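From the pipeline queue, job 12 of 40. The input is one protein chain; the requested action is below.

Action: predict structure.
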Amino acid sequence: MTTHPIVTAITERLNERSRDRRTAYLERVRRQASEGPRRELGCGNLAHGFAAAEHADKAMMRAGQTPNLGIVTAYNDMLSAHQPYATYPDRIRRVARLNGATAQVAGGTPAMCDGVTQGRGGMELSLFSRDVIALSTAIALSHDLFDGALYLGICDKIVPGLLIGALSFGHLPAVFVPSGPMPSGLTNAEKSRVRQRYAAGEASRDELLDAEAKSYHSPGTCTFYGTANSNQMLMEIMGLQLPGSSFVHPGTALRDALTDRAVETAVALARDPGARRVGELVDARTVVNGVVGLHATGGSTNHLLHLVAIAAAAGFELTLEDIAKLSDAVPLLARVYPNGSADINDFHAAGGMAFVIGELLDAGLVHGDAATIAGGTLADYPVQPYLADGALHYAPATRRSEDPSLLRPVAGPFQATGGVKMLTGNLGSAAIKLSAVGEDRWIIEAPALVLDDPHELKARFAAGDLDRDVVVVVRFQGPQANGMPELHSLTPILGVLQDRGHRVALVTDGRMSGASGKVPAAIHLSPEAVSGGPIARLLNGDVIRIDGVAGRLDVLVDAAEFAARPTAVRTAGATYGLGRELFELFRRNVGPADRGASIFGA
């Protein structure tokens, strides 16, 4: 199939714009690859490295003739999605040994949960944790004992951080190993309904907690299509984890078999001197495929930050304009909560990633020739894994959706353009997730209520100040101000107002959760308020127009008057407590949201 002309044009533009940067990156990768692990340079170094290994592994490592894999793990047992990783290292070591290789836990990375920190001070560390994870990954692998690496992570900032770290070791093969989603519990729609009833004072705290506990009830990722499950979509469509491995439940025989195959794949890549290392595998086609997958599935808006930062780590300058132009070409194929009522398990049962990738391949919307860890190309990925006689097999995926209410073909999509839209105007640049918003809400024009503290919204709501059409502006929430926290906790209140028939929207230089939807939200506004962005000159009552159709975000104020206004100064909010004081260095050095909100100079 011929590649779609817009996909081709964006890929060519990305390559051309990034030529010097990508060339320098590849030269560094190839130089590191030619040097190889430096195990032979110091007997003391090597002896330290295998001192605690089991006898058989120690003998292989001492001989130095077999691959040694580094395991970088984000395990903790506070996150439901990461709890299954407790047993993975022993399993990985055993499978590696059976394949004539060794494996060691090279190091751990932090893994925090936005669902736990939502609306609290710790949320201000969430986005920064991505770059801390990248740094932790580099420290883990800096021992220079490894011929390849397996990355154990699944949730919000963890996978992007691991991949950024992996790309700094681009000379090593990299295999990402998911753990899968939890089984379905209380429906996401019912959970949302109880949250809104609680926000309106119609449900008790016990009722709310009961609903939340029934939703988040076992090991595995949360079942909505937020950032964690969007991560898995990305790693699969970017060819960095095995086909069909994203959404298989933890603790099942099939999940174990896929984990074993991931280890076997890592061993084979480490053993093959001609195999493409991760720095070469992640090329412009891979990056574009990731963006296309995000649009086609209506994935998390957090990836507008992460994809830019990941691309930069591989030597590419991906822009929001690239992402916007791809959105115009890519139809929305999935309706998974918050974009619909189904959850990720329903999506998987309806055909899941195999169906989506197959449709995008047939339409020329992804690069089918992009390399993958499985040894072939993305064209090989429309397959379904299954077990027979205790062994893992793959079958060609069905070419039909098992549930057209949540998964549709390119020929009959839910909407003709992607789930995420970029906005520009006299307030700067922002993003909006249209796939989660009713078409009657794609254009909102209403007076502004300007808040410098998101917690003030609840008090305004309780006082009855919001029973009207309103665009709530929450500023001083950008990366330089306070780490760009998610503002998902505002969604229930705004949802109540919308359900009362009001025209409601949010404008912020902060983030919304990957699970946020229903209410139109212009997010990631850049420049941010603390750096003097136009949002800092907004006043209560200014009429703001969000136009998701035309891709515009404007304040309808005389240009000369608006330019002459003084810039507000941040007065609300603390930068200490819960570890926030340790991240002043990050706040001073972080880049803007439209460059990935990274401390690494994206």
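Job complete. The two ends are 34 Å apart (CA to CA).
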